[in-house]
Structures
1.
Amino acid sequence: MPVPMTAPKVLDREFFEIRAKLLEIAASFDRLDRGAGTVEGDPRMSLIREALDVLRSDEPDRAEAIQMIFSRQYAADWRKSLKVVPPKG
């Protein structure tokens, strides 16, 4: 069974990628700030803020929690509500 990498080794390996992603996110927010109009009432901004709160937390499984924020709740009638036609055969 493989031994998991230590936290310092993970940081050594992923620091620059994490930094780049954070800079990319910051640049996106800067573009939103500079753009005309407002997105304050847009529900997507609420989802983004919720995801950022999860990211800042010390809770385990942050990736799963953030995925669930952006996911639809399961509905048994999803084919009907999304107008999906089942494949023939």
Note: The chain has one domain: 7-71.
2.
Amino acid sequence: MNKVNLEIVGLTYSESSTGAYVLILGDKNSQRRLPIVIGSAEAESIAIGMEKHKNGRPHTHDLFLRFAHEFGVEIMEAVICRFRDGVFYAILICKQGDELTMIDARPSDAIAIAVRAGCEIYAYETVMDEAGIIMDDMEKEDTEEPAETPINIGKAQTSLDLLDMDTLEDLLQEAIDNEDYQKAAEIRDEINRRK
């Protein structure tokens, strides 16, 4: 299965989900983005791992990595392997001697471990096709007129059910242009649900 090499593009607070954050992963070779909603503890752990901040006491992900190293297990890569019913799934590819092993993990945990281990983060192409957002024409000026009636998406998700596909596509592009990845992910999910 083809894999897409990802990097962490951003980590932002989710306005529509209390206590949640949106982790934004970007395809290193294109303008595609993969927004994933994660918990606050995992967001903190990823941020600490990215900053290489040494805490007096190890976090759970530090402990996992230390445990792996003590027993000769190398974390090779983190792979977001599936997207089903709005939920992402991931695996860690580990190597001990000549043996490779796959360990199921939540994407947030896999990424928190990957940033500490310094290994690559991937997603299968099928996941990117289904859940990714394409960020094209970000540099061109926005010359289009704004929509006559703005639609509040987020807490009022039911309003998406009332819109036709053309309007949803326009709203998706608008959310992407405004870098509102949470809203874009919700609109994308509605479009995918109808297909």
Note: The first helix runs from residue 40 to 51.
